[in-house]
Amino acid sequence: MRRNAGDARGAAVIPTRHYAAILVPAAALILLFAVPFANMVAISFFRPVPGGFYEPAFILDNYRRFLTSFFTHVLGFSFFLAALVAVCSVSIAFPFTYLLTRSARAVQVCWLVFFLAVLSLSEVIIGFAWGTLLSQTAGVTNLLVAVGLMDKAVSLTPSFGALLVALVYQALPYSVLILYPSLSRLDPFLAEAARTLGASPVRTFFGVTVPSQRRSIVATTVMVFVFSLGSYLLPQILGRPQHWTLSVLITDQSIMQANLPFAAAMAIFLVALALILVGLVTLLGRERAAAQ
Amino acid sequence: MTNWAKAAFFAGVATFMAAPIVVIAGVSLNAKKALSFPPRGIGLDWYQALVRDAEWSRALLSSVTIAALAAVVSVALAFPIAWFLWRHRAPWARLVMLLGVAPFVLPPVTTALSFLIFWTSAGLYGAPWTVVVSHGIYFVTLPLVTTMIGFAAIDPAIPEAAAMMGADDGTIMRTVTLPLVGPYIVSGFAFAFVLSLNEYIVAYMTVGFTVETLPIKIFNALRYGYTPIMASASIFFVLVAAVIFGLVARFGDLPKLLGAWARDS
């Protein structure tokens, strides 16, 4: 790996004016990201006042509400849904990305542009598009009616299935883009050796490629899990109220219910969870780097 | 057999990924005011409406303006950090980098909520420029990462040679560093621009009641009455993203930006 140019020129003293280059953006990030975040942590301990305000206090009531059965139910459903989405999208994305990295470069670039375009799409648009695709008037069931498989077009949304499909749709490009670097660096000789020894392509894939990428698969699944936990609009657009997730609840509490302290407490909980999971993945990656 | 299976698998994924886009593209071409597919009559009326309808065109203009300004803010914050990390060896500077990567790793709702609380506490809630600053911070990760990849790709011998020939930091920056890193800065700008254009939750929580960006407008329309303009607006987003990422791929090295080995290795 190339080191930065500073090495080449020796560890010279940093000129004072160079500090401005990093200290100005650092100050901006501290003031506009770290401070608001710390502020949110503080407010999660404040006492909510009806009407959308709060007063300084140090209470744990906002966190205690996590113990209510409504909240634990939402939390359980959010985890279940995010895990299901992660497993579904990684199961499709892994073989897909593996084959993609072995395709011609122009093919790879086309798919990457397409996936980036879909990944950047607003959740509003993905929700609207799937809502239309599963609707009665413009939906996929019209196709089944035309073919003669169904008598009458029906609406497939809102439902759990609609929500799941749209979440997988959203997570699939993300999974592919996370898997892409490690799979494109995969040593081709490993699979070739297995093939030379007489293993079929399918057997090579499941017997050699998948096990050699075990950690990368686990890491990607965790990243996609965290990504899906963050989905805040699809459950509102394509699901029923019982399909609302923690992220929806946070949005609801902060805007509709105007209970900022409780929303903040839930947000801190979500961040803590995300950080723990991402931290575990990073540790896993270090271990892998050390093992090689 | 294997090739056939691979083609079928790719076709399946392509169908799944393209289906919703194809349907809304069809809906956007409807001649009548109906969300039907296949479209009844073909026309570009709903694309014209996107520009002609006062409310929708205002939303379009707000979104593009916010995205362009936010991307400028992101690049302006990211470039000096990336440059410093490349030019100097300072372990503490890695902390600043972490701070720059954090906004993008956290769940979007939490970042949005922290901005909502911050701007409210500062008494600036709803001011249109707050969404520019918020998006600038939120998306700083993208130009930061692309610019760092760009700096890492510079052969250290080149600036070293320039320094040996007597060039000072300013001259090296102008004649060597900027031309080499330029494409990566542009890519970072493009990523930040497209994501800001599509962003909903931060915009909603900061200026949701004063400025209607296009995603906010589509969501409101989704709740209070459908119109095919929603479809033409969505297709506009798909096209913008495809064109911009296509350009990044055409003039830059997309697989490398996304972490694959460079073309020449």
Question: What can you tell me about this protein's structure?
Answer:
The complex is a heterodimer of chains A (about 290) and B (about 260). Chain A is mainly alpha-helical. Chain A has 14 helices and two strands. Chain A is globular, with a radius of gyration of 24 Å. Chain B is about 75% helix and about 0% strand. Chain B contains 13 helices and no strands. Chain B starts with a helix and ends in an 8-residue tail after the last helix. The chains are: A mainly alpha (about 290), B mainly alpha (about 260). The interface between A and B is large, with 94 and 97 residues.
Topology summary:
The complex is a heterodimer of chains A (292) and B (265).
Chain A: H1 5-8, H2 16-43, E1 47-49, E2 53-55, H3 61-64, H4 69-101, H5 105-120, H6 123-133, H7 141-147, H8 160-184, H9 188-196, H10 201-212, H11 214-229, H12 234-238, H13 246-256, H14 260-291
Helix pairs in contact in A: 4-8, 4-11, 5-8, 6-8, 8-11, 9-10, 11-14, 13-14
Chain B: H1 2-28, H2 45-52, H3 54-87, H4 93-105, H5 108-121, H6 129-138, H7 141-152, H8 157-164, H9 169-198, H10 201-207, H11 214-223, H12 229-251, H13 254-257
Helix pairs in contact in B: 1-12, 2-3, 2-12, 3-4, 3-6, 3-7, 3-9, 4-7, 5-10, 6-10, 7-9, 8-9, 9-12
Multimeric status of the protein: heterodimer
CA-to-CA gap between the ends of chain B?
32 Å
The value of Rg of chain B in angstroms is: 22 Å
Radius of gyration of CA atoms of chain A, rounded to a whole number: 24 Å
Mean pLDDT of chain A: 85
Going across the biggest sheet of chain A, name each strand in turn: 1-2
Structural class of chain B: mainly alpha
* CA distance, first residue to last residue of chain A: 15 Å
- Shape label of chain B: globular
The assigned structural class of chain A equals: mainly alpha
Number of strands of chain A: 2
Low-pLDDT residue intervals, each spanning 5 or more residues of chain A: 1-10
The number of helices of chain B is: 13
Helical fraction of chain A equals over 70%
How many beta-strand segments of chain B?
A: 0
Q: Biggest interface and which pair forms it?
A: A-B, 94 and 97 residues
